[in-house]
Design brief:
This protein is of the alpha/beta class and 543 residues long. It has helices at residues 7-23, 25-31, 41-58, 64-78, 81-98, 106-123, 132-149, 153-174, 176-181, 186-202, 250-258, 282-289, 337-345, 362-371, 387-391, 409-417, 425-435, 478-491, 507-520, and strands spanning 236-244, 261-268, 272-279, 293-302, 326-334, 350-353, 374-380, 400-403, 440-446, 451-453, 456-458, 463-467, 470-475, 496-501, 525-530, 538-542.
Length: 543
């Protein structure tokens, strides 16, 4: 029985876990029945952990701390959907506990699993039991108990898996939706698959990724960038990296540097502080910075000279981050050329293509945010399964990121109608957030599989209507659903209706849908727009 692991072992364990989740991806998707039976938990978890596997394959002979850090960093940027973000947080906590360690025994592994659970629970605003959170929490608690009995890591992992199986079975009874469908939680099942695959690797029985699986490509990136130094007021571009050696708050350094110049960017993590500032007094900047730790690199350039020298290597440089030209900017997620045009016309700076079944990763959102020439960037996820991935971006960019938790495209549109580029950040955040509750969202899609959901006997290929986050009805005739939705809109006295028709709907059929609403809701102003969105035949907003 294996007693400890090192960096090479952890590397194999995570790669094995990624392969196992890839093998089980579709099975996990089919467990994910909420809110409609077209789940993507397996896809999200697979894409997230495979970013770590891809980076680990490029990392030769890592020590334990390095292997954990590489995996956690890759997953944070590659996280997709709520399940992917939670998975990344579990590994982020593991990495934090293994920092600086060369070997890991059963006790340390149990502590690392618990650190991961703590990170995940801390990040979720309203933790729901009967999910991956429950499974990971109970498994970690059992691991700690087992470690007191036997300090071998293999014994501890076996105990965690045994408890995870029991906890997973109980998720059906903890969550009413799971109980109705008669299935266990998809995310919890994914975590069990990962734990089992890591145990296989411990025993020398590594899981190999299926040959058809495409390796996830991850762009090299960092937390710092080249800066545009044209048309500047201050003479010296001052950049440095400090190794953090005390508990002084980097925000105090930021406040001091703000008094010396402009174009200030300060990025920090647990190990370093990176600074870029334009100033006429670089000596004062360095004199203050040394109070926070030792200098790793320093670069001071006279920006009026023709040539400059590079200090940081290409591996240390991040993609170019747009210099602020305004206070506020907006990034929105949507799928479909028509919807993209709507958001662009309302003032959105950057569009991320994505939505239901194709959630953008944290890295995708980060790259879009960095292209916006604003100090503060609002992000409209427009899908509840993208909100958590968006919330991770603020820690990865020098820009300030504010996530407006829009769960649907109509909510995002309404939020943009409340956006005032001349107002302050706090006022906009309040107005956009409050606007979300003023619009009712209706969606018509199709069932990807047979299921029993919320009292409805659903058959593959049926049309499904949702009102808000609840299943409203199902039928083999889409006109039946359109009429029922229109009647609800009429009964609630809504005055403005906008219908966005999808890529699979002709203009002629879309006009018939608009006519149904116009006939049944004569008091309402009905507008029809070509959204071009996939998956959903119609997205309908009512205010």
């Amino acid at each position: 029985m294996k007693q400890t692991i090192n960096g090479a072992d952890l590397r194999r364990m995570i790669i094995s876990a990624a392969a196992a989740i890839e093998h089980n991806k579709q099975a996990l998707n089919e467990l994910n029945v909420f809110p409609v039976p077209d789940g993507d938990t397996g896809t999200n978890m697979s894409m997230t952990i495979n970013t770590a596997a891809a980076d680990l394959r490029k990392t030769e002979d890592p020590d334990l701390s390095q292997a954990a850090k590489v995996a956690a960093g890759a997953m944070l940027r590659g996280a997709r959907g709520n399940s992917g973000v939670i998975l990344s947080l579990l590994f982020r906590g593991i990495s934090k506990r293994l920092k600086g360690e060369q070997d890991c025994d059963g006790v340390l592994w149990a502590l690392a699993l618990q650190e991961g659970v703590d990170a995940a629970y801390k990040a979720v605003m309203k933790p729901a039991e009967g999910t991956i959170l429950t499974v990971s929490r109970l498994a970690a608690a059992k691991a700690a108990e087992a470690a007191r009995e036997n300090n071998h890591i293999e014994f501890v992992q076996e105990a965690a898996i045994a408890e995870a199986k029991i906890a997973l079975a109980e998720t059906t009874n903890m969550n009413p939706v799971l109980k109705k469908a008669g299935v266990v939680d998809a995310g919890g099942k994914g975590w069990l698959v990962a734990l089992e695959a890591m145990l296989c690797a411990l025993r020398g029985e590594d899981i190999v990724a299926p040959e058809t699986s495409e390796e996830v490509q991850v762009k090299d990136s960092a937390d710092f960038s080249d800066f545009n130094t044209e048309d500047i007021t201050f003479s010296y571009c001052t950049e440095f990296i400090i190794s953090r050696e005390n508990d002084r708050d980097p925000e105090e350094l930021r406040a001091f540097l703000n008094t010396l110049g402009d174009s200030l960017v300060l990025v920090d993590d647990e190990e370093i502080i990176k600074v870029h500032v334009h100033t006429n007094d670089p000596g004062s900047a360095l004199h203050e910075a040394v109070n926070y730790g030792s200098f790793v690199t320093v670069k001071i350039e006279n920006m009026r000279l023709q040539h400059t020298e590079k200090v940081m290597t290409e591996a240390e440089k991040a993609p170019k981050i747009a210099e602020p030209e305004k206070k506020l900017g907006v990034v929105s997620v949507c799928a479909g050329a028509g919807l993209a045009d709507v958001f662009t016309n309302l003032g959105v700076d950057a569009i991320i293509s994505g939505g239901q079944t194709m959630n953008p990763s944290t890295q995708d959102i980060l790259e879009a945010v960095n292209t916006v020439p604003a100090e503060t960037v609002f992000v409209l996820p427009n899908n509840k399964n993208i909100i958590m991935a968006a919330e991770q971006v603020d820690a990865l960019t020098p820009k300030h990121v504010v996530v407006i938790p829009s769960k649907t495209v109509p909510q995002g549109v309404t939020a943009m109608l409340s956006f005032d580029p001349e107002a302050e950040e706090e006022a906009n955040a309040a107005a956009m957030g409050e606007a979300l509750a003023t619009v009712d969202t209706m969606q018509i899609t199709y069932a990807a599989r047979n299921s029993d959901f919320d009292g409805y006997d659903i058959h593959e290929g049926d049309y499904l209507a949702l009102y808000g986050s609840s299943l409203f009805g199902t039928s083999q005739d889409i006109r039946v659903l359109l009429r029922s939705l229109a009647e609800k809109v009429r009964d609630q006295g809504k005055e403005y209706v906008t219908i966005y028709y999808g890529a699979d709907v002709s203009e002629r059929h879309a006009q018939k849908a608009a006519d149904i609403f116009a006939d049944i809701c004569p008091q309402a102003d009905v507008n029809l727009l070509n959204g071009g969105q996939p998956v959903y035949y119609y997205l309908i907003s009512a205010e």
